[in-house]
Structure formats: C-alpha cells, structure tokens
Amino acid sequence: MTTHHPGTKDGTIRKPLKIALKGTELLRSEIYNKGSAFSEREREEFGLRGRLPFTFLQSLKAQNQVLFYNLLTRHLEEMADAIANYSHLFRRPEGLYLSPPNVDKMQIDFLDACQDRELDLGSGGIGISSAKAVIYSLVAGIDPAKTLAVVLDVGTNNPDLRKDELYMGWNHDRVRGEEYNSFVDKFANLVVKHQSQCLLHFEDFGVSNAQALLDRYKSKQAVFNDDIQGTGAVTLATLTSALQVTQSKLSDQRIIQFGAGSAGLGISRQIRDAMHLVEGTDLKEAAAKFWLVDQHGLIKRGLGDKIRPDIEDDFVRKEADWGVDDETHLLDVVKRVKPTVLIGTSTATGAFSQDVIREMAKHVERPIIFPLSNPTRLAECTPADALKWTDGKALVSTGSPFPPVDLGNGKEYTVAECNNALVYPGIGLGAIVSRATRVTDKMIIRAAQALAKMGPASADKPEASLLPDFAGKFSCHQLSKDSQKVAVTIALEVMDQAIQDGVAVLEDKALLSNTDARRRYVESKLWRPEYREYEYDPEGCR
After folding, report:
1. 383-394: pLDDT as tens digits
2. Total structural domains in the chain?
3. pTM for the full predicted model
4. What are phi and psi of 147, to 5 degrees?
C-alpha cells in the first residue's frame, strides 16, 4: 500500500518538506520514516529500494511516529492501557534519563537530547511521561518531534525494584534533602537557560516535594504540575458544572476534603483560589469554607506535628471550634459541618459509607459527591450507592470510569470521570501557542471554566454528565476528533488569559486582539498524524 497526503483538508497544496536524510538514516528516523507509505518517486530519490523494511511494526513508535499516532487515533481504546513493567519491555532508549551519579554531565546529556530541536514540551518515570507526551500529541496536536520525556531518577526505596536484575533505574537509596534539591534545580535551570519557551510539565514527584517545586519554578518558567494543578483544575471544572445544576456559587459551599495529600491539597487550593479570583472572596474567608480530614481525623491545631508542613495555616481548624475531646472522624465532621460538597482523594475504599452519605443528604437538596480515588476498587463509594442513598439526588463524579446508573424512572445518570486528561492537554496547548513565560493561576481557572461550560448537565437535566463525554460512547476516530475539540476550546481560553495576564509572547500583534485570528492560528499549529511529501535537500530537516 502506498499513500501520501500532499494537501490539507481545505484543499490547500502543501509544499514538499526538504529532507537531508537518505537510505538507512531515513528509515531509522522516527520523525520522517513513512515505512510502506513512501511513494515510488521517494523510494527512488532517497535510495530506499531494497532497504524498505516490512517488519517495523514491532517498534512502531521508535521508527514511525506518524503511523504510530495514526494507529492510535483509529484504535485508541484497544491501545490505551498504561505502560507497565517498563524495564521488562525495554527495547531501545527513549527520552532522557538523568541521575545523581552523572550530575556533572547533565548539561551535556540535556543538550545532546535537545540537539537541533526547539522543544514545546518537556515532561518528567519515562513510562508515564512518554504516555503524557503521546496524549499531548494525540489530543492537543503537539508535534512529537518537539516533545522530550525526562525522568529524574533519584533512586528508589522499593525493595522489589532493588532486587530486580532487570530494573533499569539507578539502584540506590532514594536521594533526599539538599542533594535532591540541588539535582532538580540543576535540571530546571538547564531548561530555563536552553529551552526558555518550553512548557515544563512535571508530575509523580513525592507529596512533600511537589508543591515546593512548583512554587520554586513557576515564576521562572512556564511550569505545570499535573498532580496538583491538573487534578485541581479538572475537579474545579466538575464542581463548577455541578453548581450550574444547583444554581449556587462556589463561595456558598461547605466543602469536606477527605484525603489531604498532594491531590487533595491541590484541589482545595484550586477551589479556594477560584473563590478569590472569580468571586472576590477574601483568601482567608475562602479557606474557611474547607474542612480537611485525613487518617488522623479533622486537621486542627491540636494535631501538632501530625499536620503536614505543606498545609497552609488557613486550612487548619481552630481548637476553639472543636473541643479537645470532640470526635473528628469523617461521620462526626459531616454531622457538624453539614457539607454541600464531599470530595475523596483518600484511597480508603468505601469511606463514604451509607451513614456518611445519608447524613449529608439530610441537610442539602443535591449533595455533590466526588469519590475521586482510583483505580475503581479504591473509590470512596460507587456512584450507584451514592445515588441510592440520596434517592437519586446526588451529583456524582468519580476518578475512574463507571457505567451509567439506572435511576428507576426511565432515566440514567451519566457518571462523569474527573480525569486530568480532559484538561491538561488544553492548558498545555494554550501555554505553548501563546509562548507563555509562565502558567498563571488565572490561566488554570480559565481552563476549568471552559471545561465546565462544555458539560451537558444543567438544572433541567441533572442526570447528564457533569463533564463532556468523549471517552465512552463514540468510535475511536470520533474520540480523537472530539477530544481535540475540547483541547482547542480550552487552549483558546488559556491563550486569551495569558494575553490578559501579560505573559504571552506573540510576534503577530493581530493575535492580541482578534479572537478569530487566534483560532485560525491555533488550528494551523496542530500537528496531525498525516504524511507530507518529501523532496531531498542537503540543508533540510534531519
């Protein structure tokens, strides 16, 4: 089969791409290899006759990115499983591995990985960041040639990994303290120095490090932490959508956050900041709308050193409000607070018990219940139970996919999956196309608002999904199409906010004031898994 696409969808003829590679070099290029899709003319001009391999599918992504992404677009559901046991599946180097023993060579290694490349996106294990980069390309249209997956390998305390002869990471106790900070600082400063226009997407940093690192770098570079900001943004979007059903304001809510790790704190901070920036609520007053509960019970001053150091004082309840001997576990807090919103990031299976949810439902017409722990087996409750125990009145979103719930009146409740993948591609795309020097709080909130507006639920249709559903009911081709539409819509809002915040760096001044021009600009920047015709040029792309 020989196929190529010299034109665009609107009929415009695209000029051939000048390529300086020939023969084996071209076939080894994951960016320019077309495999069996080279035309007869190209096979002749580039010396591919007799060389063209027909067994490249085993290493498809490593050899042919266009075909790899095109295949994903058509068969996403079958191929969307997370990468597991990466060391046992290793075939060839992918991305950039950095570890303390080679810290003196970090700049050389970084520059070698970035040679002749202007990065749009860098993300920091390889399996996770590579998968994130794939989503950025598939959903947000980011050119894979402009992404670099990075792992900052500071060792591991996992005994199973340390004993595994096939473990490919640095087999050393995990580095902490000043040595850790110095190592991460060196990498971040290399990005600022050599790829200042790049969006640095990082995640899976330890609970005690994630917020500190975000605070340290966000004023120097366009930095985005998915565990904190992505989780916070998509939860804010889901809550905003639920409030469109209840027709109430953020600042009217009483929110119990069950689980106060990096995700739970990220969610609380994001909602608090939205109350402040969108509704004008004082930050202290906004924080007072939250009751954080962890394994020790309500987080209050009497817990002393059991309170995590990264929890802001405004979130810690005063002893004057809670006696020393008062019970402060989840049910006790629900009885006293009478929350309108209950969010779970605890991984405590079944923690939202019948007693907890029925108690909540006594005091609010439409309880907003988000059991966000994943995978499914760790959810604080199931949507079916939440709806059963509230007589079908709950507004529910989960952190894992759940089937619709039969409400028994000829209607089904569509359960929204509160998944970061709904929002971070659009935030990333918006930051990249605006060449934002920073990712501001208002840009994150604007993204959440844009996503909420796309949710089909309303006061007249409360059983509809709180978020746009492009992950379950469509064909794989439609999934890619609809997900990109969501990402572009969010990106345009993020771009607009970047301009308003004064962090966008755009050479074309027409983009600063013309919304239609921005849309055309963004759509022109989207990378698609389609082949372009080549012409040989020694000075062309390599």
Report:
1. 999 999 999 999
2. 4
3. 0.82
4. -120, 150
